[in-house]
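Q: For a teaching session next week I want to show students how multiple molecules come together into a single three-dimensional assembly. I've collected the sequence lines for a complex. Could you give me the predicted structure tokens for the whole thing so I can convert them for display?
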Amino acid sequence: MKNMIERFFDSLDDTLIITVRNLRRYLRLPQLVFFSSIQPIMFLLLFNYVFGGALGGSTHVPGGKYIDYLLPGILIQVVMFGGVQTGIGLAEDMGKGIIDRFKSLPMSRLAVVAGRTLSDTLRNVVVTIIMITVGIIIGFRFQTGSIHALYMILIALLFGFSLSWLFALIGMTVKDSETAQLASFLMIFPLTFASAAFVPIATMPSWLQAFSRNQPVTFAVDATRHFAIGVPDGGAVWKLLIWIVAILIVLIPLSIRQYKKRSV
Amino acid sequence: MSYSFEIKNLIKKYGETTVLDGVSMHAEEGTVFGLLGPNGAGKTTIVKILSTILDFNSGSVKVNGIDVKNDPKQVRKNIGLGGQFSAVDEYLTGYENIFMVGRLYGLSRSVAKQRTEELLSGFKLTDVMHKQVKTYSGGMRRKLDLGASLIGRPKILFLDEPTTGLDIGTRLDLWNIIKDLVKSGTSILLTTQYLEEADELADKIAVVNKGKVIAEGTSQQLKSSLGGDIVEFQLQNISDKDKTFNAVSKFAKTKIDFDEDSLMLRVPVATGSKGLMSIVQALNENKLTVSELSLHRPSLDDVFLSLTGAKAPDEKPANRNRRKK
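A: Of course. Below is the structure for the complete assembly, covering every listed component.
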């Protein structure tokens, strides 16, 4: 037991060391940080002003104002995009000599991947704050209390964290970072667009509704929307938490296996 | 005496391709073992297996007496890895790179800090230690990489082509660093494409080609098995060929190589200067005139000519920057 606790703290130490390394890299690549922060703002503005007119007055949209409906959806998309960075970053690392060094060190086999998912989650915190600030400027308001606002942010970040393990696995499986990016977006687009993120599911054809109602991105959007504007969640919060736990239970061991297997 | 590493019947395959085909070798503690061979010979694969990065199909591999399959974590505590690919992070500073590796070795913050400063000043990198590595020259990166591999005070150091692509001054610097390490008791496995480098540094050399060890021994043993040095000269006329062969063949340790187009004759001799004198004398006695007479030390090409009958695969240094699969 003592040995296990010791190993846990060693792993945590190593993970934090790698997290610091990744964050340092981000800070020294200001262009990357700039463009990845601009992207969600652009989505928010485009969707709000392009679809807002058509959908804002529609009875399908609970809460009336489209921006209140839209922002939680965009938030989920943003944390997913943040997760894609995990795959890209790992694919880049895997192609370089530094991964050989990490593998030859007496460090945790979990640390390189966990450090990456953790640093991308921290980056997501920054992007989330920027996006909500811009949202408030163009009219978004939390219809609930500040504790609910915090829940919304936390659950979105947690969802992004769990998905970044999926993108990590993709990043370590494909050959290079370009492929990692393409493969990840190929997953993101159907999941976000065929969800409750941007438009009400009731407006979709019935065959698509069956998928859209039961996939994790919809639960994530429903959960954040519940916390943001107080609409009933219909069990989405619990379903989302179960999805998050399930994703982590399956993907953490798979990612570690792939990390050990992969050698450049 | 115990071994710094010991490999028996190692076989490694990538799919259908066999990259290591029954490799066996060992090195005594505190010595430098040189692994010599062309690109694609399997040198890097051997280093990766020894440093627990790569799995293998069969055979046994021990580092410091510890089996790499049974207890890789214990092996990792005793080794350092450095080499041509400069496994350092470009966006971190030199200091941050070494400090990070020290922390990942399990050193405490204060010890890691102290060792990092020591290593950086030992390698004369103190001036640039707070600059990002992307601003470093190739030689500086290589030194930093070596520094990172030394922070855990490894008992055995694996250096994969540590001087490939470096200018001669930096190469000599690194040679001196390596010599100092051996003096302080570190065992080293060094891979290289340069015979000269193995000759200068290694106590024992194994020549690998196409996944097999084709020769093993001290530098002296290898050279004498190669027929030592080579006396080379050009005939004036093709008609002199038979007469020349008759005159000099008794000094040749192995087969004389003759190129019909250039009229160049290459005679492997046991000891260079003595062989050269004897051949000159024999040519004089037979009134044969030759040009471009010279004495050659064996090069990697000669090693391969002699051991395999084929030229070493020609690789331009520019291609070496790409990572090997």
